[in-house]
């Protein structure tokens, strides 16, 4: 027997991390605060780890004031470094892998601030969660907020997935940028429960589990179960004795110097989610969250320009509320139990309300820059990314310009290419090609002309009645007899390569309709093809078809000056067709490992049989790009989950990286990859899923995605930059003519260096930069203005170091900053005066 920091350790000592998970939005009864304090007093050996939504305290401090005050006092007396530890301060306990990196940072930032508003002495040293709330880049995010440790397991709530099993007592969790954080893994011997489909072996510290740990050489085995707030068991049962309850930080600090931690380069594929990808309710939640993420980050950047250029007050309270509602929409329960709640107030209903609130605030900030522009002919185009962009921008024309043919003039009095169109609501739009350098704006002028300029795309119907289209980038063949699919796509700019596999069809819709017990696909039915837009900037082909009696159309847009191909898919459903591997309605059991919703091959999906690419697949993740090690993504049971998630994009390349094709999506979902199909995108699942819920369709399905063929691999092909531009397009609006036609606040010279966020804090400009480039040379940044100094800060806002800069002859400030690939750095630019 020997002693460690107050514990009497026998050879067979084990530990257990108990605690509570939940919150006012998930589950937190009024009596919880009193219950925790009473149980802690009644059980002197018990300690708890808390994963409670920070906003919970706003309500509980009022509705249960006395007991909450007792909890606050108990925390200050015995909590810090003792019997209570806060282990996940994020605002809404998001899964993390399904949202943007900037969203994750705000979840921590706002959550820590709210927790400390009620527990001023709260410390945050170990990150631990009940749900699979992980992503590969967490080490640098956690370290940025001052965390020292992490726990890479979620033993009692694996409904939505789990992490890979790896290692023994401790690991060095190494993120994609090289940041390492000491972590407790899900042990290599920690199997999945044989009695459930939501637990691993460590959830009760069973005798079998602890003995297996000792046999594998694990010296200090620890189990874990965060009880749902509202469970009234008190100390969680432990089958093995002797077991000591512990906070995670206390456990790690007791053993870290007594074990050798192995290095684990944890990748995004070590997160193995099991959500109901393709369910329409999930699809809409993911779309709504994506729209709000994009709008809110753009709005912050626009408000930053407004503050600096127009001396407008910084709307801190408005942005805090906008982030609050977006963060709630990212709550893990939105994604795993979207139907829970009363009719009209389900998680899905709440997401719609929350994101609408975020969008309203964001739009107010975006369009406040323009003010009133009565019958103006001047258009100001804003770029919220850091690098120079030359892209198509879209603008709804007001009544006073609707009846006119228009020419667009740039600041050098040159005509720029433009095109008119009508949208689905009957609005008349003008599209034109705008070039804007850096984060700033350029002004254009609309002039009335007598006649419109026509520049039609070359297109013919060949002898097989196929529609052939020639653009600057592609030679395309649509076959109406095969459902209007693309049977040939030749990349003119890349050695004339054919991108479609022989005898296959690109963009074919295919799925298993289990009531008919057969696959249906769009290529089975003849389609109607029409060209609905054609001009000097783009051409759009409409494909109208049906699948299993359900009408759908696809819009396929080719751009004159951009290799990206944009797609819209719209499906009008007849009733509730069952789509999936089989019918679960009469025999769904939660404990069954096999479930129909796991198998993407049988869901409705879009096929991309791309030729001579697919040997390597890369996918982006929050502050990361991961090369897949999976030969295929298909699985059909809970014990064989694989990471099949597309966040913003996946990219297929050949083995040597000479050429590739990226797929962009407007929402987080799953992708397919298997021997017969290099790439597919999940569109629809209709049937029983988690907890026996019937996942139905609620109106039409509409999704947007894009293909981006390119030379080289994803990095050389600028896939990340193109995805950023697709998600954060140029913003145009009418404006009064001002003396300054062009302004550029910040410019990133390296196009793989992106401005993740920009905002104002205590009169300083806070800019976060993310680098996806593998080039180790420093990246150069240009500032157009005078400053009092530049500092690098951490995510807490604490200074790390001064950043040197030089003033050029033209007054510009130039600085160089070194950021590892997939790393980010935050700069505080003090009292900037732009010019």
Give an account of the 3D structure.
The chain is an alpha+beta fold and about 850 residues long. It is built from 13 helices and 55 strands. The strands form twelve sheets. Strands 15, 17, 18, 21, 44, 45, 48, 52 and 53 form a nine-stranded antiparallel sheet that branches. Strands 29-30-31-32-43-38-37-34-35 form a nine-stranded antiparallel sheet, with helices on one face. It has a six-stranded antiparallel sheet with strand order 28-27-33-40-39-36.
Keywords, please?
835 residues; alpha+beta; 7-stranded beta/alpha barrel; Immunoglobulin-like; 5 domains; 9-stranded antiparallel beta sheet; 13 helices; disordered N terminus
Summarize the structure.
The chain has 835 residues and is an alpha+beta fold.
As for the CATH topology of the largest domain, it is Beta-galactosidase, Chain A, domain 5
Number of separate strands: 55
Number of domains: 5
Structural class, please?
alpha+beta
Described by strand count, sense and barrel closure, the largest sheet is: 9 strands, antiparallel
Question: What's the topology here?
Answer:
Blueprint: E1 2-4, E2 7-9, E3 14-22, H1 32-42, E4 48-52, H2 56-63, H3 65-83, E5 84-86, H4 101-118, E6 126-127, H5 138-144, E7 149-152, E8 161-163, E9 171-174, E10 180-185, H6 207-215, E11 222-228, E12 243-245, H7 248-255, E13 262-264, E14 271-273, H8 280-310, H9 316-329, H10 332-336, H11 347-368, E15 378-383, E16 389-396, H12 399-402, E17 405-409, E18 415-416, E19 418-422, E20 428-436, E21 439-449, E22 458-461, E23 467-470, E24 474-479, E25 485-491, E26 497-498, E27 508-513, E28 518-521, E29 528-534, E30 538-547, E31 550-559, E32 565-572, E33 604-607, E34 616-621, E35 624-627, E36 645-646, E37 649-653, E38 659-665, E39 669-674, E40 677-684, E41 687-688, E42 694-695, E43 701-711, H13 719-727, E44 731-734, E45 742-748, E46 753-761, E47 764-771, E48 779-783, E49 785-786, E50 789-793, E51 799-802, E52 806-807, E53 813-817, E54 823-830, E55 833-834
Parallel strand pairs: 3-4, 3-11, 3-12, 4-5, 6-7, 7-10, 9-13
Antiparallel strand pairs: 1-2, 8-14, 9-10, 15-21, 15-44, 16-20, 17-18, 17-21, 19-20, 21-45, 22-23, 23-24, 24-25, 25-26, 27-28, 27-33, 29-30, 30-31, 31-32, 32-43, 33-40, 34-35, 34-37, 36-39, 37-38, 38-43, 39-40, 41-42, 45-48, 46-47, 47-54, 48-53, 49-55, 50-51, 50-54, 52-53
């Amino acid at each position: 027997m020997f002693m460690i920091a107050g514990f009497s350790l026998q050879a067979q000592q084990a530990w257990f991390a108990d605690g509570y998970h939940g919150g006012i939005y998930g589950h937190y009864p009024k009596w919880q605060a009193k219950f925790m304090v009473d149980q802690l007093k009644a059980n002197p050996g018990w300690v708890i780890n808390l994963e409670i939504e920070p906003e919970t305290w706003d309500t509980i401090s009022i509705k249960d004031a006395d007991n909450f005050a007792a909890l606050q006092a108990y925390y200050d007396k015995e909590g810090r470094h003792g019997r209570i530890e806060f282990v996940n301060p994020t605002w809404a306990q998001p899964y993390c892998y399904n949202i943007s990196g900037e969203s994750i940072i705000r979840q921590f930032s706002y959550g820590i601030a709210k927790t400390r508003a009620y527990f001023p002495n709260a410390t945050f040293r170990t990150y631990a969660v009940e749900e699979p709330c992980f992503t590969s880049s967490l080490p640098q995010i956690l370290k940025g907020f001052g965390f020292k440790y992490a726990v890479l397991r979620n033993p009692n709530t694996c409904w939505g997935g789990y992490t890979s099993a790896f290692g023994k007592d401790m690991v060095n969790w190494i993120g994609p940028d090289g940041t390492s954080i000491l972590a407790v893994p899900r042990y290599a011997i920690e199997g999945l429960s044989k009695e459930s489909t939501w637990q691993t072996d460590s959830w009760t510290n069973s005798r079998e589990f602890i003995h297996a740990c000792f046999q594998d050489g694990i010296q200090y085995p620890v189990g874990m179960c965060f009880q749902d707030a509202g469970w009234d068991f008190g100390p969680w049962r432990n089958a093995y004795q002797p077991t000591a309850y512990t906070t995670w930080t206390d456990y790690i600090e007791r053993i870290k110097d007594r074990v050798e931690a192995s290095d684990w380069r944890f990748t995004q594929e070590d997160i193995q989610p099991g959500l109901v990808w393709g369910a329409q309710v999930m699809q809409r939640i993911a779309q709504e969250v994506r729209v709000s993420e994009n709008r809110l980050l753009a709005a912050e950047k626009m408000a930053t320009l407004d503050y600096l250029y127009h001396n407008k007050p910084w709307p801190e309270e408005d942005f805090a509320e906008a982030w609050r509602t977006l963060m709630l929409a990212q709550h893990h329960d939105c994604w795993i139990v979207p139907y829970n709640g009363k009719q009209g107030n389900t998680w899905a209903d709440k997401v719609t309300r929350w994101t609408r609130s975020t969008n309203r605030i964001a739009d107010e900030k975006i369009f406040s820059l323009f003010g009133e522009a009565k019958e103006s002919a001047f258009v100001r185009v804003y770029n919220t990314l850091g690098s120079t962009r030359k892209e198509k921008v879209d603008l709804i024309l007001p009544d006073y310009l609707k009846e006119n043919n228009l020419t667009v003039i740039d600041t050098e009095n040159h005509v720029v290419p433009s095109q008119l169109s009508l949208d689905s609501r009957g609005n008349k739009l003008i599209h034109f090609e705008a070039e804007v350098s850096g984060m700033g704006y350029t002004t254009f002028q609309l002039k009335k002309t007598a006649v419109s300029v026509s520049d039609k795309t070359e297109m013919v119907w060949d002898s097989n009645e196929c529609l052939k289209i020639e653009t600057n980038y592609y030679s395309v063949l649509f076959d109406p007899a095969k459902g209007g699919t693309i049977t040939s796509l030749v990349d003119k700019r890349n050695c004339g390569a054919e991108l479609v596999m022989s005898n296959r069809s690109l963009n074919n819709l295919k799925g298993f309709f289990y009531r008919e017990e057969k696959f249906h696909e769009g290529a089975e039915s003849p389609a109607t093809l029409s060209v609905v837009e054609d001009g000097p900037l783009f051409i759009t082909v409409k494909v109208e078809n049906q699948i299993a009696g359900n009408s759908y159309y696809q819009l396929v847009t080719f751009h004159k000056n951009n290799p990206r191909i944009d797609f819209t898919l719209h499906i009008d459903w007849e009733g509730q067709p069952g789509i999936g591997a089989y019918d679960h309605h009469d025999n769904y059991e939660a404990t069954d490992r096999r479930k129909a919703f796991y198998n993407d091959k049988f869901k409705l999906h879009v096929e991309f049989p791309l030729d001579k690419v697919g040997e390597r697949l890369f996918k982006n993740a929050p502050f990361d790009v991961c090369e897949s090690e999976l030969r295929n993504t298909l699985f059909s049971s809970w014990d064989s989950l694989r990471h099949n998630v597309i966040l913003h994009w996946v990219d297929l390349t050949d083995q040597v990286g000479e050429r590739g094709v990226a797929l962009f999506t407007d929402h987080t979902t799953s992708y397919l990859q298997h021997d017969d199909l290099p790439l597919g995108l999940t569109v629809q699942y209709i049937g029983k899923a988690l907890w026996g819920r019937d996942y139905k369709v609620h109106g039409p399905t509409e999704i947007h995605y894009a293909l981006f063929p390119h030379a080289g691999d994803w990095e050389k092909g600028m896939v990340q930059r193109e995805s950023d531009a697709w998600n954060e397009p140029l913003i145009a609006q009418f404006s009064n003519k001002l003396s300054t036609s062009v302004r550029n606040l910040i410019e990133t010279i390296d196009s793989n260096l992106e401005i993740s966020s920009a905002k104002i804090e205590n009169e300083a400009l806070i800019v976060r930069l993310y680098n996806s480039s593998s080039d180790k040379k420093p990246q150069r940044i240009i500032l157009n203005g005078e400053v009092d100094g530049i500092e690098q800060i951490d995510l807490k806002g604490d200074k790390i170091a001064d950043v040197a800069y030089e003033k050029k002859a033209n007054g510009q400030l130039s600085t160089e900053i070194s950021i590892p690939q997939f790393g980010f750095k935050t700069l505080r630019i003090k009292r900037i005066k732009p010019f």
